[in-house]
Amino acid sequence: ALKSVTVLLSSNVDLIGATLNSSTSEAQGFSKRLIAALEDNGIKASATVVARHFNSHNSSDKTLTSHAARNWLLGNVMPRQEHLRVLSNWLKVSPDHLRFGKSQANTPLFQSSGVEHEVSFEDQQFLAKYFSLTAAQKAVVRSVANFPSDS
Q1: CA Rg, the chain, in Å?
Q2: Which run of H or E residues covers position 36?
Q3: Which of 46, 96, 118, 121 falls between 20 and 30 A from 106, CA-CA?
Q4: Element at 14 (helix H, strand E)
C-alpha cells in the first residue's frame, strides 16, 4: 500500500523531508536500519537528537525538523535521496544500505586468502581518497601502513 504525503513548502525549512508515495514497508525497513545505524554510532534514536545532528552535518540551507526526523524514526516516510546522502556520510553507512538493507548486489566484496570480506562504506570512502592521491602520496600511505611498494 502506498502512503500519500502532503508536503508543506518553506524557503529554508524542510518540513517533511520525505519521498512522496513511499511504501510503508520500505519506510519501516529504512526506520529499522536508521535506528541500528544511530545505535552503532552511540546516538540516541530521538527525533530531536537526529534533527540536531543531521542539521550539523547538512551543508544545505534547508534544515530538518524534529517532526520530519520523527516520521523517519517511526517508519512513516522515506527521506529524499539528498537526505540519504547526508545520513550516510554522518552515520558512515552506505545510502544503499540505509534505503535497501544489505544484499550481495549492493555490498562490495574483497577476497583475501580465499575469504570474502565486505567492504564497508567507510573503507570505500578511504579507498576513493587513496586513489585520488599522487603516486608519491600513495607511497607515503603504504610506508606508514607498512605495505610494500608497487615498484
Answers
A1: 19
A2: helix 24-40
A3: 46
A4: strand 13-14
